[in-house]
Amino acid sequence: MKYKLIYIITVITIIISLFSTLISAVDENDCIYYFYGKDCTHCGEIDQKLNLLKVKYPGIDIHRFEVYFSPQNVQQLNQYFNAYNIPEKAQGLPVVFMPGSYLIGDQSIVNLLEGRIINNHDPSCPSLEKNMVIGITGEKSPSDVLNTLTIFRVVKDAVQDSLRPINLVILLFLIGLLLLIRDENKIITQGTIFIVITYILYLLYGVGYFSSLSSSLSTQYYISKTFAVLAILLGFLLVTGFINRKRAVSKHVPEEKLPKFKQWGEILSSPLVTIAIALIGFIALNNTHDVYLILQTLLTKTPFRMSLFIVLLIYIAIIIIPLIAAVIIMHKAAVFYKEHPTEKIHFSDIQRDNWKKHNYRVFSFWVGAAMIGIGVLILLL
Question: Residue 88 pLDDT > 60, yes or no?
Answer without folding.
Answer: yes
